Amino acid sequence: MNTREKNPAVVIAQTGQPQARQAARMLYQAASAGCRQRGLGCLALSGGSTPQALFAELAREPLAASFPWHRTHFFWVDERMVPYEHPHSNYGTARRILFDRLPEPVPNLHPMPSDGDPKDAAERYEQLLRSFFRKHGSGRPIFDAVLLGLGADGHTASLFPGAGRGSERWVQAVQGGDPPVIRLTLTEMVLNHARAVIFLVSGRRKAGIVQRILEGGDQNLPAARIRPPRGSTTWLLDRQSASLWHAKGTPAVE
Ligand code: 6PG
């Protein structure tokens, strides 16, 4: 059944650790379901600052001990073309806050290349994804869950307003964002194949764009266009980022 007609689920959590814990549980559930149903989990992680509390939750008990680390493949939604040890590196941040804090190395981390020619790096990651999804499925880029953030301008991943749409590519090299560097990003088409998309948004600074997307769905905003037709979309907000949105019906409140 095409679920695009369904409104996205909206969950409003208490700011801070409760929201991060809820997001961590959602990733754990998606990866565990993938392991049960297909023998492995497959997640795509975002960068920026919001997911950092979530990464810290995954690195501590109880999830650190129960997460299926050895059967989950971790990919990235986007990456800045900086060295992994650079503070702006999305992969480097996830390593510092999560993966390097676990008692054992996680075997299946697939960071985006962040060196060399950007278009060539995008092509390399696209080939890696195509090969992975040919080996582990139908050949389409179907992640068990994609964790997405939201910029105050309505961008998500590194899909920025006004940028080209509707690419059949799986990975693109783009320029923009904050910091304004060259980035690689999964495309809208890939994100809309996910079994589950989780928008993790916190802070009053995002309240206006959250309202604009959830109330109006302005299709000029990349984040508003991410609604996998055969998957679920959950907006996991905190009270501050949800403060201007007028719920139709009663959102779940954690
Ligand atoms: C990136 C992110 C980006 C981020 C939003 C929100 O690489 O910059 O993927 O899409 O999710 O810009 O960033 P904050 O969480 O820092 O507000």
Distance between the termini: 28 Å
Strand order of the largest sheet: 5-3-2-6-9-10-1-11
Number of helices: 7
Strand content: 15-25%
Bound ligand species: 6-phosphogluconic acid
**Overall average residue pLDDT:** 94
**Topology pattern, helix = H, strand = E:** EHEHHEEHEHEEEHEHEE
Helix-and-strand structural type? alpha/beta
Largest sheet: 8 strands, parallel
Low-confidence stretches: none
Shape: globular
Number of E-state strands: 11
Helix content estimate: 25-40%
Measured on Cα atoms, how large is the radius of gyration?
A: 17 Å
Walk me through what this model shows.
With 254 residues, this protein is of the alpha/beta class. 29% of the residues lie in helices and 20% in strands. The strands form 2 sheets. It has an 8-stranded parallel β-sheet with strand order 5-3-2-6-9-10-1-11, covered by helices on one side. Helix 1 (17-38) crosses helix 2 (51-58). The mean pLDDT is 94. Bound molecules: 6-phosphogluconic acid.
